[in-house]
Amino acid sequence: MVSKSDQLLIVVSILEGRHFPKRPKHMLVVEAKFDGEQLATDPVDHTDQPEFATELAWEIDRKALHQHRLQRTPIKLQCFALDPITSAKETIGYIVLDLRTAQETKQAPKWYQLLSNKYTKFKSEIQISIALETDTKAPVDSFKAKGAPPRDGKEISSKRCHILPIASYQAQQDVPSSSCAYSVSALDSAISLRTPASFW
């Protein structure tokens, strides 16, 4: 069993965007996928400077983190435009984060330009930070999502996904293998946020 002190959180903070076109009849959402587990922001207004203010986080132990770094497992973010009336979802672009850049010391967020941007006349960017935090609140075998610790400045919503070592999973075979937790809004329930398998 992995000791409690070895439990970490991979925290991706999706803060805001810039250089987006204004589309009053649409909303924006960002989905993040790591090691087969997916989380997503809540939909926000499709303005030229969208405010996501969301943390997406996965639980992992140090041994698994080391293996993912050796394998260069990426964290892939994809941005979509949503039509709340028809539930249609358009792919806008994507960003790939290098897990090896995540550190346990606090780092300033960076601007990442969307790749394969549908808005060819705009250089759309999203401000993101990636960090490692020591998970001192949840037991190792907990599958229950929890809120992020308080942050200075703007209020940030959070979604946490648990990735357990194989030994912990085998000890709980009655628990589903996918343990992501989402905060559900009315729009979330009307729109499927699962990224097509062909993209990844």
From TrEMBL:
Its main location: cytoplasm. Keywords: Coiled coil, Cytoplasm, Cytoskeleton, Repeat. GO terms for biological process: interkinetic nuclear migration; positive regulation of centriole elongation; regulation of protein localization. Residues 1-112 form the C2 domain. It is found in: Cytoplasm, Cytoskeleton, Microtubule organizing center, Centrosome. GO terms for cellular component: centrosome. Coiled coil: none annotated. It holds the Pfam family C2. Interacts with TACC2, TACC3, CCDC52, TALPID3. Belongs to the CEP120 family. Plays a role in the microtubule-dependent coupling of the nucleus and the centrosome. Involved in the processes that regulate centrosome-mediated interkinetic nuclear migration (INM) of neural progenitors and for proper positioning of neurons during brain development. Also implicated in the migration and selfrenewal of neural progenitors. Required for centriole duplication and maturation during mitosis and subsequent ciliogenesis. Required for the recruitment of CEP295 to the proximal end of new-born centrioles at the centriolar microtubule wall during early S phase in a PLK4-dependent manner. This is Centrosomal protein of 120 kDa. It comes from Pongo abelii. The lineage of its organism: Eukaryota, Metazoa, Chordata, Craniata, Vertebrata.
